[in-house]
Write a structure and sequence with these properties.
Bound molecules: zinc ion
Strand content: 25-35%
CATH class of the largest domain: Alpha Beta
Largest sheet: 5 strands, mixed
Radius of gyration: 19 Å
CATH topology of the largest domain: GTP Cyclohydrolase I, domain 2
Order of helices and strands: HHHEEEEHEHEHEHH
Helix content: 40-55%
Length: 183
């Protein structure tokens, strides 16, 4: 549960801590804005995963490329963002494409690390769709690296999580990786 009052107090203290005056005009509303923003994020974390079960004959790979996402690294609370590519091989059940987008958003809008985000999306889809396999690849730029100059700006980190056929069957995995590279 989001405790807006706690967030307000914390942001006010944080601003004081970095030598700002939390009562100056531009900052006065900031603690409340941030509290309301997190409440909004929380609201986007749960959704109804509607499944379609009339696709028993379809057992080719379903692939959605380039789902934009924005998340926050839990070490610095700075954004990391980029694209998620999701593929699965259905076992009689598919979901609407928008639900894949909602899934990505649900796991992005919280303090995260890219590796866990990737795994959580794969685990969730495995649990909900019970597919023959699922593959998730996340490509992201981390502002905590880019802003501090620890890595060249624009540096992309790639993570992947493979389940079922994507793990066991080399051909499936290769097809997936080929498709997301667009060659
Ligand atoms: Zn970080």
């Amino acid at each position: 549960m989001i405790d807006k009052e706690k967030i307000r107090q914390a942001i006010r203290l944080f601003l004081e801590g970095i030598g700002e005056d939390p009562d100056r005009e531009g900052l006065r509303e900031t603690p409340d804005r941030i509290a309301r923003m997190w409440e909004e994020f929380e609201g986007m974390r749960s959704f109804d995963m509607k499944l379609f079960e009339e696709f028993g004959d379809y057992n080719e790979m379903v692939l959605v490329k380039d789902i934009r996402f924005y998340s926050l690294c839990e070490h610095h609370l700075l954004p990391f963002f980029g694209q998620v590519h999701i593929a699965y091989i259905p076992d009689g059940v598919i979901c609407g494409l928008s639900k894949l987008v909602r899934t990505v958003r649900a796991f992005s809008l919280r303090p995260q690390v890219q590796e866990r985000l990737t795994e959580e999306i794969a685990d969730f889809l495995e649990k909900e769709l019970k597919p023959k396999g699922v593959g998730v690849v996340v490509e992201a730029e981390h502002l905590c690296m880019s802003m501090r100059g620890a890595m060249s700006p624009g540096h992309i980190t790639t993570t992947s999580a493979l389940r079922g056929a994507f793990l066991k069957d080399m051909k499936t995995r290769e097809e997936f990786l080929k498709l997301i590279k667009g060659v």
